[in-house]
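Progress report, Aim 2. The chain analyzed during this reporting quarter is listed below.
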Amino acid sequence: MAFGPIFLQSCAHVSVQPPSTPFDHYEIDTLISMIKEQDCLVHTIIRTGRLRFIMDGTKSDANIVIAGTKDPFKINIELTHAWGRPLFQILITGTKIRILSFTEKRCYYGFLGSLVSTRFFSVRIGDEQIWSFVRGFPVIRRYDRAVSFRGNRISLLNNEYGIQQALDFQHPYNLPAMVSFPLERIELSFSDYNNDNHIRYARKTRLNDYKNKTTLVLRIKQSIFNKDIPESIFELNIPENFEMLPLKQFGNK
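Predicted structure tokens for the chain:
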């Protein structure tokens, strides 16, 4: 009799979540249209928050101010210490990128897709990844075919049927939870969503660069969308005593 309660307790029913089914064609079209619609809603961004950089177990944090326009494509990022001392200014105009490192007294220059490698941080940057990261919502690349091989995921294929981009969605809200770029081995995740006049955006965005073994985590405190941004914001004043250094090209670490 002493084993009765133990036996009954060990056989208690455990609820198992059944695996979700792949999206059908209608669901795929609906979700892709939603992401494209969100992309069309935002023309400019101004954001403030905190950025954490993680590499080899080492973490460093900085305040961040972001200003950007989608067309023409321009992004200015300023990173400062908690007490206000400037660390970096990153200016992207079209395909060009320039980085002022105030601690190193250097100006790095190159093109999007280069390996940004300074003494303090190292990460690869492409246009879709950087806009998705600062916007807090994924951008869809041009693709040949969209399919769903498993639940909550859409894979975008190129004309050779290779997966160039994969989108994972939160259940049951069907907001983007993650976007991955298998060829570049880069992954972005989105969480803590907010709604600003129908503009959906993540207040926490994480970028994992698996090839370079680095992680960026962006936590947004304030966002302003679709306000005019003065052209002076996208100017880079390089001090005369700064050394000019080219960035390494993508994949040539």
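The CA atoms of residues 152 and 169 lie 5 Å apart. The chain has one domain: 22-235. These observations will guide the mutagenesis work planned for the next reporting period.
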